[in-house]
Design brief:
about 35% strand, RQC P-site tRNA stabilizing factor, RqcP, single chain, tRNA-binding, Structural Genomics Hypothetical 15.5 Kd Protein In mrcA-pckA Intergenic Region, Chain A, alpha+beta, RNA-binding
């Protein structure tokens, strides 16, 4: 299943177009490698998504083309959520995990 479709069906991201934008901006990694919207996901893949000042890491448990809200929550397991603190110094932004 395509990454953008998984993010939408699993309700990690509400709209597929937004999932595509986030992916194509390089804010999503699969198993440590930057992924595009069309990257094919497999069960067991580790997905890392950067949302503003937060990085969410999740494991793919199921791949379904359609899912109700209750089923969507079972498609993945959140491994971690990390906040990124931004520090501005001399016009340069440094990010810390």
């Amino acid at each position: 299943m395509r990454l953008d479709k998984f993010l939408k069906v699993s309700r990690v991201i509400k709209r597929r177009t937004l999932a595509k934008e986030v992916s194509d901006e390089g804010r999503v990694k699969i198993n440590g490698h930057t992924a595009k919207a069309g990257t094919v996901l497999n069960v067991g893949d580790i997905v890392e998504i950067r949302f503003g000042n937060k990085i969410v890491t999740l494991e793919v448990l199921m791949l379904e083309s359609h899912a109700r809200k209750e089923e969507a929550e079972r498609m993945y397991k959140i491994i971690s959520e990390e906040r990124i603190e931004k520090e501005e110094k001399d016009g340069e932004i440094n990010e810390f995990l």
